[in-house]
Amino acid sequence: MKFKKFALAVVLAAGVASSATAKDGFFVGAVGGYDLSSKIISESKNIWQFTYGEKQLDSSKDSAFNFGLRGGYDLGFHRFYGGYSYGFGASIKDSWVEGPYNYMDQNGNEAVIKNSYNNKFSWDAHKIVAGYESRVPVFQGLKAVVGANVGVQFLKFKTKYAKTTQILSGSADVEDYSYTNKCKATNFLFGVNLGVAYDITPSQAVDFGVRYEKGVMAKVKFSSDDPENDGDMGGTKFGSENIGLYVGYSFKF
User: Fold this and answer.
1) Handedness of CA 36, 41, 46, 48 (dihedral sign)
2) What is the pLDDT of residues 57-71, one digit of tens each?
3) What gap in Å lies between CA 115 and CA 108, rounded to an integer?
4) Cβ(72)–Cβ(65) under 8 Å?
5) How many Å apart are CA 11 and CA 8, to the nearest integer?
6) How far apart are CA 239 and CA 214, in angstroms?
7) Dihedral of the CA atoms 54, 55, 56, 62 (nearest 10)?
8) Which of 124, 75, 66 lies closest to 248, judged by CA?
9) How confident is the model at residue 235 (pLDDT cuts 50, 70, 90)?
10) pTM attached to this predicted model
């Protein structure tokens, strides 16, 4: 029992010492990370469907890097900040072959053909957030961090479609195509993070941990270079969800 009381006293004393040596004031810093899961979500849960032949792709999940800048005020136990970050492009590629099969064009010409389809779905995001972190001393220079943030996200995503046809025998008129659909959405964003921070000096600190961010559903603006596409998305809404790791550095004035 005496040992437990002594150990607790040492930990508390170390925490007080850490708080005393840490310097309060304004800070600036950078934070980067890796989203283990970067996901785009539609109201139907399927972001995009490639429905050529019998092939269909419903997945909208990839991994991606992100980087940002932030600044605010550090009170030792509490930190308030604002920041900007960019989520680098994540993407999904899908390719398949259809055929060979017999084909007849409008003029009655026949050929044996094979179609190759190559589609790519990609997205990135700019984010502006304001956040708060509770930074509780654990041991000398080391703090447990729990935080939350809210903000706005400018989400962009596009789908490139391409089809090429190879004539294996015979002669017929065939048509290849290549076009891109683009969408933009402005989402309300919220997130939470859990990690640890370490005060290298009274003015410098590093932190790392895990975080979760959610972009709330919002209507999209649509454009396409496909002449047969009227650009009507029918009021479709899209959002995002990211889960990943982060590491940051800050300098206090």
Assistant:
1) negative
2) 344 677 889 999 999
3) 19
4) no
5) 5
6) 8
7) 170
8) 66
9) low
10) 0.77
Average pLDDT, the chain: 83
- Read off the tokens for 178: 């290549």
Please give the full DSSP string across the chain, using - where no structure is assigned. -HHHHHHHHHHHHHHHHHHHHSPPEEEEEEEEEEEEEEEEEETTS-S----STT------EEEEEEEEEEEEEE-SSEEEEEEEEEEEEEEEEEEEEEEEEEEE-TTS-EEEEEEEEEEEEEEEEEEEEEEEEEEEEEETTEEEEEEEEEEEEEEEEEEEEEEEEEEEEE------EEEEEEEEEEEEEEEEEEEEEEESSSSEEEEEEEEEEEEEEEE-EEEES-TT-----TT-EEEEEEEEEEEEEEEE-
- Give me the residue label for tokens 């708060």: 132
At residue 221, what is the residue type? K
Has residue 217 got a pLDDT over 50? Answer: yes
- Percentage of the chain with pLDDT > 90? 54
Q: Assess contact for 109 and 171: CB atoms under 8 A.
A: yes
- Rounded Cα distance between 127 and 152, Å, is 6
Residue among 190, 159, 198, 154 nearest 51 (CA): 159
Does residue 54 carry a pLDDT above 70? no
Q: What token pair was written down for 204?
A: 């410098």
